């Protein structure tokens, strides 16, 4: 390799890194809620707040998931196998994010989606894992052309990483089946009401608790409902996705589900 080629490659790598950092920084300023969340992060002092349970947001979506022409609901559950009951996801007043993770693990939590249609089986997402619930859930419409709606979900892992996976699911022959999945970053997703992620250079640094600001939670919920997702249907069984590529850059690709 001559020195000119080396310098060109070095410059391209440097530009890619700069673009990546700029994109992350600007994406954190795209919504109305971000500046207000930042203010809450600076103002709250953990030693001045009593520890209290925060139930956390629960997703509920509507669609025709079994293709029978009737609409039904899918409802998120965050269940403690230790206590044998639906439980809170978070705590307000904890001194350290590690404590929140430890408490989630101690509860032996089970994350699943149930339906108000008894013919639709429970979608079991994580049982006994290190998890805070679901960070995103969406009805994607009828992607594969069978008359039933597909869904997407992303797990809210109880860890320090901001790397994640987007899952596309379909309900066929009485069972849930994964159609496709692809890698993403957590910061590509919108905030959730009551508890939002706090990011640093190395990943997730903690949760920002928002329990006493109804106006801000309303803004966050509106932004959540307006989020278009990372999947776009192009044709039957053909989609375009926004994903994290092998070079750790945000990218798009066309996926033919017939070939998966």
The biggest sheet, with number of strands, parallel, antiparallel or mixed sense and barrel status, is: 5 strands, antiparallel
State the shape. Answer: globular
The average pLDDT value, as a whole number, equals 86
Looking at how many chains there are and whether they match, the oligomeric state comes to single chain
Q: In percent terms, what proportion of residues is strand?
A: 35-45%
Please state the CA-atom Rg, rounded to the nearest Å: 20 Å
How far the N terminus sits from the C terminus, by CA atoms, comes to 39 Å
Q: What is the string of SSEs from the N terminus onward?
A: HHEEEEEHEEEEEEEEHEEE
Number of strands: 16
Computed structural class: alpha+beta
Please give the domain count. Answer: 1
- Flag low-confidence runs: 1-29, 40-47
How many DSSP helices? 4
Please bin the fraction of helical residues.
10-25%
């Amino acid at each position: 390799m001559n020195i000119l080629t080396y310098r060109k490659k070095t410059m391209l790598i440097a530009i890619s890194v700069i673009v990546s950092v700029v994109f992350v920084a600007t994406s954190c300023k795209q919504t109305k809620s971000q500046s207000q969340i930042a203010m809450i992060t600076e103002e709250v002092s953990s030693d001045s707040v009593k520890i209290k349970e925060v139930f956390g947001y629960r997703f509920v979506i509507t669609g025709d998931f079994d293709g029978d022409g009737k609409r039904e609901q899918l409802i998120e559950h965050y269940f403690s196998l230790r206590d044998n009951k639906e439980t809170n996801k978070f705590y307000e007043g904890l001194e350290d994010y590690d404590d929140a993770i430890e408490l989630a693990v101690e509860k032996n939590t089970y994350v699943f989606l149930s339906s108000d249609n008894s013919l639709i089986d429970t979608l079991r997402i994580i049982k006994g894992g290190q998890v805070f619930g679901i960070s995103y859930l969406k009805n994607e419409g009828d992607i594969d052309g069978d008359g039933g709606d597909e869904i997407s979900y992303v797990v809210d892992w109880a860890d320090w990483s901001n790397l994640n996976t987007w899952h596309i699911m379909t309900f066929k022959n009485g069972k849930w089946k994964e159609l496709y999945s692809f890698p993403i970053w957590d910061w590509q997703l919108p905030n959730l009401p009551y508890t939002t992620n706090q990011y640093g250079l190395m990943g997730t640094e903690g949760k920002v608790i928002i329990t006493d600001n109804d106006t801000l939670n309303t803004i966050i919920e509106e932004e959540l409902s307006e989020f278009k997702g990372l999947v776009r249907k192009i044709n039957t069984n053909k989609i375009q996705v926004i994903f994290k590529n092998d070079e750790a850059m945000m990218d798009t690709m066309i996926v033919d589900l017939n070939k998966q």
